[in-house]
Amino acid sequence: MNTTLAALPEAAPPSAWNRFLDSDFIFSFRRSPTAMISALMLFFFVLVALLAPWIAPQNPFDPAALDLLNSRLPPAWIEGGQMKFPLGTDGQGRDLLSVLMHGLRISLLVSFSATLFSLVVGVTLGLVSGYAGGRIDNLIMRLADMQLSFPTILVALLVDGLSRSLLPSGLHEQLALPVVVFAIGISTWVQYARTVRGATLVEKSKDYVHAAKLIGMGPLRILFRHVLPNVLGPVLVIATLSLGLAILTEATLSFLGLGVPPTSPSLGTLIRVGNEVLFSGEWWVTVMPGVLLVLLVLAINLLGDWLRDVFNPKLK
């Protein structure tokens, strides 16, 4: 009997992918229709944005592909519309569906970049503040308190206005996208810093941190190798919700004419352009990008709410 058992091969441990599929995270995701629908919508929007140059029916930035005779056509289901322009055209004869695909690409690029920038800055400052304590902690938290006294859009407007006054006009046009990313990102790092600081204060008093200190690990290695993985749950929730805020902030800046340049229009720019001709009857030029913006932010916020419930079951 013992010889037979000893001869049996040992079962291979499950792979990391199989463990992920069997995790509580995936189980909760499969049992939440709202999470699945919002994740599917967000995945569809990201896929369309990435493939826009190849799947868009028309290149809206190519003057040779435009025909002014096709300008101001209504959507295809309205009298006077054409099937090759399902969502209608704008005043330049551009296919609105193609314009929306490219505008979605710019909006997601700016918002993802701004969210990543604010995440890196906020998480780093939060880790340093919570672990170092003392004057460094007081300095970082007072900066955070000062920024919280100003609305996010006001900070973004201030940064964008300073860049326009300090940089030459030609250079500002070239750096318009990085400036918008910096303006949005620098105005939203506080939430990450305060959340990570609180979690770091809890984690640094645990035994594994003391053990790491005893074996001679440096502070940076302890922070980013041991403390950081244990505070990523709340950070993921904040990042998801901040992505929707970044999209709305970018759209607001572009609507005010302070966002991305007209040569790379985002959804906010398209809404502003359509708003100028709204009362002339061309409602589709502003309604279509507005609906797309609402659906995009709604999908992100619903997914963020589900993540918040997963990482904090007390909120269910």
Verbal overview:
- The protein is mostly helical and 316 residues long.
- 69% of the residues lie in helices and 0% in strands.
- It contains 16 helices and no strands.
- The protein has helices at 2-7, 16-21, 24-30, 33-50, 52-55, 96-132, 134-148, 152-166, 169-174, 176-186, 190-203, 207-214, 219-227, 232-255, 267-276, 284-311.
- Helix 8 (152-166) packs antiparallel against helix 10.
- The model has no long low-confidence stretch (mean pLDDT 82).
Compact description:
Helices cover 69% and strands 0% of the residues. The protein is mainly α and 316 residues long.
Please report the total strand number as a whole number.
Answer: 0
Summarize model confidence as the mean pLDDT.
82
Summarize the main sheet.
none
Number of continuous helical runs: 16
- Element-level helix/strand string: HHHHHHHHHHHHHHHH
Q: What is the 3D form? A: globular
Content of β-strand: under 5%
Radius of gyration: 25 Å
**Unreliable segments (pLDDT under 50, ≥5 consecutive)?**
none
Residues in helices, as a percent range: 55-70%
Structural class: mainly alpha
Distance between the termini: 51 Å
